[in-house]
Amino acid sequence: MTSTRTGILGAGISDGLLLKPVTYPWAMDLYNQAVANTWFPNEIQLGEDLADFARMTDDEKHALVHLVSYFNPNELLVNKALAFGVYPYINAPEGHLYLAKQMWEEANHTMAFEYILETFPIDREAAYSNHVTVPSMAAKEAFETRFIQRMTSETLDITTTEGKKDFVRNLIAYNIVLEGIWFYSGFMVALSFRQRNLLRNFGSLMDWIIRDESLHLQFGINLILTVLAENEDLQTAEFADEVRAMILQAVEMEEAYNRDMFPRGILGLNADYVNQYVKYLTDRRLEELGFEPEFGVSNPAKWMATANDTLQLVNFFEATNTSYEVNAQATGR
């Protein structure tokens, strides 16, 4: 049997069945790093954090529950974006290996947040319902599901320009927006408790999740840039403007979500502070895709810098086969 690969996109079941020679070494490298990162939630004991939780203010507890309420269902939503919108449309086996590990990691993150719900005295029913009953959460979820649903349409043809655009749109929605901006915004809030010597073990659990998510983000950016490099019909100013607009729309939704998280603010943290961080993150993600930054704001949480510094910059429409390859171990994202 010989390889029939002509690019990373493809929907043939019998295509992409030979791993070697590896066509996209960045995918294989990220898979190996992901395997090395394997962990399990119960390895961190959260019992010590219960005393912290008991002495936290109502506003602090509200912020924590708000985070868990959002993260728990959206880790599963990422898996739907991968299973329905990415895995079926690529034919590189090294990509499939990484995606399989990522989907396991998203399931593991879901179990991590279940572990938090089981440990802390949180109303599970209320936490589960928030992503539906809190309008700012529901709006973010609707944004994501719109693109996932398009990928499941019987009319989607990945060989057409519009089909390939749908593929990239889904990647932008779940990888850049959900994982690269919305999740990282939540990570900063979660780790801010540890900055005040609260919930230190919870913070360690979040460190492990962030380590996984940094690889997810790099895989997604590499995949986006690979698809663009291999498909000149996507390299138009109009499509670039559409992608940029998607990312900026996400900022508005996140600002509303953070106002719901911090109706009054807590010690050292309020909605304005977090929303400045969101704008800082957004500029980094825009640059990572080769766009100009939009907001030009400074990082208000410089202690988070190692989790979100930019990758090597690449022009969105002039990517080459080597310029977007990233070693996660070297960048310390």
TrEMBL record:
Keyword Acyltransferase: no
Cross-referenced Pfam families: Ribonuc_red_sm (PF00268)
Residues involved in Fe cation 1 binding: 75, 106, 109
GO molecular function: metal ion binding; ribonucleoside-diphosphate reductase activity, thioredoxin disulfide as acceptor
Free-text comment on the cofactor: Binds 2 iron ions per subunit.
GO biological process, one term: deoxyribonucleotide biosynthetic process
Tagged with keyword Acetylation: no
Listed EC numbers: 1.17.4.1
Cofactor list: Fe cation
Regions crossing the membrane: 171-193
Signal peptide bounds: none
Reactions performed catalytically: a 2'-deoxyribonucleoside 5'-diphosphate + [thioredoxin]-disulfide + H2O = a ribonucleoside 5'-diphosphate + [thioredoxin]-dithiol
Binding-site list for Fe cation 2: 106, 179, 213, 216
Family, as annotated: Belongs to the ribonucleoside diphosphate reductase small chain family.
Name the UniProt record assigns to this protein: Ribonucleoside-diphosphate reductase subunit beta
Lineage: Bacteria, Bacillati, Actinomycetota, Actinomycetes, Micrococcales
Recorded name of the encoding gene: nrdB
